[in-house]
Amino acid sequence: MKFTLNLIAFIFIKLLFSQENELKLSIDITSDEKVESVVFENLRGNIFYSLKDKTSINFQNKLIEEYFFTIKTKDSLYEEMIWLDQGEFDISISLKSKSLKIDVVGSEIFDKTVEYENGYKNLTLSNATDEEVNKFLFKELNKNIENPFSFKIGINILFKNQSNREVLSQLMSIIDSQPESVKSHYTSGLMIKTLKSRLNSGNINLADFTFLDQNNQNNKILIENNEYILLDFWHTACPPCLKDHIEIKNLTDAFKAKKTKIVSLSSDQAGRIEIWKKYLKSKNLPWENYLEIEINSLTDSLEIRIFPTYILLDRQNNVVAYTNSLSDIKTKLEIKY
């Protein structure tokens, strides 16, 4: 039986008596499941409202930013994020066949984000070259240069081109040219910090770092008679990391043939050290495995926040590849698979 819930939420934002910051939302929800609650909140967590049994909401906020809609039904929980600017908008939320879709009429930033997401998705599903994808990303970045959504696009450029200093320098130049009002947005901090870290990571001096082995002994990483060192940044609560370990193990001989030494660096915290040891013992991984134990660890110094991350170094500790994809490393080393 079709269940339709109509909620009208009027949200007024007033800042220093400026009408430009007024936000008024009219929300219509259509669902084929019985909706128990609807929550509207922002990414920072300082705006949180349950729309159940409410017809109006009032709060103050001056930022263009991301908002969450969380819809709870009897059997499921659905979440969707949207970007909103200031204005008067009609929001249609459709929950049908376990699929949540949100549409906003009248929001310029919402339209831009949808256009971007659809274009990027189509490119990633096609056989587009890196050059074609980067061309699209920079075009969208420049279209959004005066709003904070640009930092989400910047993150995509950053993680797609972690080893391409020319592209990263181009990205940094564009970010530097943004208005201060945009650069001061709370979404900018991590992206800019990570970007600067990538640009400064042309050479990694492994001698500056100490790692803990399975016998609780301190160790340094040595390149020995190898041409390359592949650093695998991971942790035991990362399913993609564990999946990649299976493939790396199957390719052990191929890496040896390319004179590449594999070193896995776990960022597991104190409460998971025994889990880390048990995992290594059960999987019998035939390469060096260490735990990062220092406050200023290599993971922290490189601002690594996404796992797995792979860094390929040459004999002089120069970064040859920096990526979140094992396939990129195999391509770089010309390992057949």
Q: Which structural traits does this protein have?
A:
33% helix; 3 domains; seven-stranded mixed beta sheet; Thioredoxin_ResA/DsbE_sf; Thioredoxin_domain; Immunoglobulin-like; 17 strands; alpha+beta; disordered N terminus; Redoxin family protein
What does it look like?
The chain folds into 3 domains: 20-106, Sandwich (Immunoglobulin-like); 112-201; 206-333, Glutaredoxin (3-Layer(aba) Sandwich), CATH 3.40.30.10. It is 33% helix and 29% strand. Mean pLDDT is 86; it is low at 1-19. It has helices spanning 108-125, 130-143, 150-160, 165-176, 180-183, 188-199, 239-250, 252-257, 273-283, 298-301, 326-332; strands at 3-7, 10-12, 23-31, 35-42, 48-50, 56-58, 65-73, 77-84, 87-96, 99-105, 211-212, 218-219, 228-234, 260-266, 288-292, 309-314, 319-323. By secondary structure, it is an alpha+beta fold. It comes from Bizionia algoritergicola.
